[in-house]
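Researcher: Please translate sequence to structure tokens.
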Amino acid sequence: MMVVDDPKEATLSAPTLDSSTSVLCKADREALLNLVEEKSRIAFVIKHGRSLFRKLNGLKENKPTDVGLVAFVPEEAKKTISPEVESCFDWIVYYDDSETHVDNLILTLTSCTAIPLPDFDQFVTELLNFIPKDKLILIHAEEFTMTVLSGIREKHGLKGACLEDIDRLCRKERVVEIAENAGILIAKSVFVDFAALPSKTEILEKVTVKVQTFPMFVKPTRMAGSTGTAKLENMEDLERWVDTTMALEEASTYLVQEYVRGREFSVVIVLLQDGLWKPLVVKWNHKDLSNYEGYFKDGLIMARRLRFDDAKNGMFPGIDDFAQQVINAFKPVHPQVFFLQGFQDLNDPMRYYLNELGYRPPGGDHTNDAFYWTCEFQASTSLRPFSSLTWIHTTKPNRTVLGSLESVLVSTITTRKEDSCATMLSLLNPKLKGKLDL
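Model: Translation complete:
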């Protein structure tokens, strides 16, 4: 295979590929060759899920004109892509996931690293036949594709986060180790590797010596969406959890932690190309409800937000220093959208515990979904009170929660500061240089 380094060489002719094995069809290759000729870089947004985006507010207007934007999505996504979203992209490549697709895939996994992304390696290999490496950008659009993309970047020598960069931020036992070494407060934690076949007695002793008190919290070391998490109220719960997990066919790794009480919050940040970072917003749940309680205890998750400057000068004093301490310790790769999640001690508001972090906006906010699908009201883009509105929360399979939203004033935060537009803009625009005015 020839990897082209000269853009002029790349545009001379389309590569000859066996159509029976090629991911790219003739129209794909012709469109991409035109982009190679016209654009300084081409960014590919990679999707595993069978949808693209609901809305991309402001992306079309703010996208740099010298950058091509292409989506790589399953063929099933064609059914749901709106003309407005489609117009944000210079081209969309569709792939066949019929042999690997699983409904509610997250419920079948024990690790985010086991996601099937059919033909992706072949796709990138074909791209490198006619796109120079320095013009090719891969953008993940989901937590579950980060590891796949980082491995492909590493394999082909592409820019961006590689396997170690993902592992350092997303593998929970490493997060604990790095935080402790950096003097960042984090819950007392014990790593349990069931694949190493420890005895039940060994696990119980290890956990009770380190964590000591109940309740405890358990979570897989490399998962998302609260999948596999549990709150253990007492020794009986702990023993039951150990027995159940040891009996599973597929062994996995878990973190057992002390149950930290406080205000659960997330900070959304854009890591800029010049190494600086721009904080956007601090998010927490109404009435200080934790994401776990909202998901599994029939609580009503309703996210609230403050602009970062308002947060540090009000409810979250010292949050800027905490964010800087975390960034210094974990050294995330720029440019990226980035978040850190933690708990604020309600008795000492300047005392923050780190929980997790990652190359994506935080999850846990389904308020906007409820409003958008019922009345096309974008909760994160409007300033208005809403009350006595009954809605159904169905993001978790087989679970329906009915609730009434109390009157709450939603901060005016433009959606594109929190959705994937921020990712794309920060990655594509080389002129930000420490400033982000979206």
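Researcher: Any highlights?
Model: The first strand starts at residue 41 and ends at 46.
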